[in-house]
Amino acid sequence: MAHGPKKILNDPRNVVEEMLEGLTLAYDGTVERLPGTDALVRTDLPDEKVALLIGGGSGHEPIFHGFLGKNMGDGAACGQVFAAPSPDTIVEAAKAVHRGRGILFLYGNYAGDNMNFDIAAELLEEDDGIDVRTVRVADDVAAAPPERAHDRRGIAGDVYAIKIAGGAAQELDTLDEVERVARKAVGNLRSMGVAVAAGSIPETGKLTFELADDEIEIGMGAHGEAGIAKQKITTADEIADQLMDKILADIELASGDEVALLINNLGATTMMEMLIVNRRIRKILDERGIKVHRTDVGTWLTVQEMAGFSVTLLKLDDELKHYLDMPARSLGLSNC
Predict the structure, then answer these.
(1) Which residue range(s) make up the domain with 179?
(2) Which of 33, 44, 80, 198 has the fewest CB atoms within 10 Å distance of its CB?
(3) pLDDT tens profile 204-230
(4) Domain containing 81 — which CATH number?
């Protein structure tokens, strides 16, 4: 396998340890790392709130551990690069954020995360009597057909799911209600991505997959999992058309409906490229009479230096708009 690009590191075996140290310092005292763990929690958690615990593998920064703050996540369980956090890490993070009203686990739908978060939930319920609910983000329309939507991967839809669930967990009094809002948000999310170059694994320097110089991968996963097609590179408009055709075929949207639109940089794509794509996406939506309530273009779920982007649509109603637009501040996403 080909080797990846140069990286500015110390010991490649210590990348997560040193990254989490720097990340915690960048929060300027509003987030702390639990001693002896790879778990981060807010330092300003109010009493008697429903807790929101997020998490997943490192290497996708700023998600997930960069999404902690008021109206965002309360804690994050962090794994090694592209690997699920351990059950012990999840349990320690959960105990630290629990404030007596239960905990919502929210994370991307990957087998390792599913297994370890489920083990942690069972331990917390059996040993500590803590009510834990789980909502998995499964927004990647390329990963499975609609009848197997539960098998889809979570990609950049995590961004809106965390933002909405974080607002709900801050404002609503019961775990039942927070879970309901989170499930509605996840059910209204659809995403799809394209890669023009692979990311790399810091410990080995190897690429996550291979593409010829004139190839792109349509619909790949957040770690470089196979998409629906390898094809020759084409224009921005044609790529946007392919992604939007698949997304719009999978979600019920009528003229007059409102959406939030998120264009996510997978690591090495320029703002210029994403804005060129945005103009095409807006034309497609305008032609269908679909209103865009807000547009977010930026870098949230990355795969190291993978070149490419993903497109996410969130179908909105008044409740989801309220929580999506609530003021929030975190290292990776702020909405003032």
Answers:
(1) 12-188
(2) 44
(3) 888 888 889 999 999 988 887 878 889
(4) 3.40.50.10440
What is the spatial distance between Cα 30 and Cα 225, in angstroms, rounded to a whole number? 35
Q: Residue 322: helix, strand or coil by DSSP?
A: helix
**Could you give the CA distance from residue 29 to residue 178 in angstroms, rounded to a whole number?**
27
Q: Is residue 52 part of a domain?
A: yes
Residues 328 and 294: beta-carbon distance below 8 Å: no
Catalytic choice (98, 223, 293, 322) = 223
Contacts of 177 (CB under 8 A, 6+ apart): 168
- The tokens describing 52, both together, are 């929101």
Amino acid found at 104: L
Using one digit for the tens of pLDDT, what is the confidence trace for 37-56? 999 999 999 999 999 999 99
Q: What is the pTM of this model?
A: 0.96
Instruction: Please count the other Cβ atoms lying within 10 Å of the Cβ belonging to residue 53.
Output: 28
| DSSP class per residue in 215-248 | EEEES--TT----SEEEE---HHHHHHHHHHHHH
Among 188, 211, 237, identify where a domain stops.
188
Q: Identify whether the C-beta of residue 154 lies closer than 8 Å to the C-beta of residue 139.
A: yes
User: Catalytic site residue 223?
Assistant: yes
What does the alpha-carbon distance between residue 336 and residue 334 come to, in Å, rounded to a whole number? 6
Q: Within this chain, do residues 32 and 174 fall inside the same structural domain, yes or no?
A: yes
For 70-86, letters b (16+ CB in 10 Å) and e give bbbbbbbbbbbbbbbbb
Neighbours of 140 (CB within 10 A): 30
Catalytic residue among 3, 60, 150, 293: 60
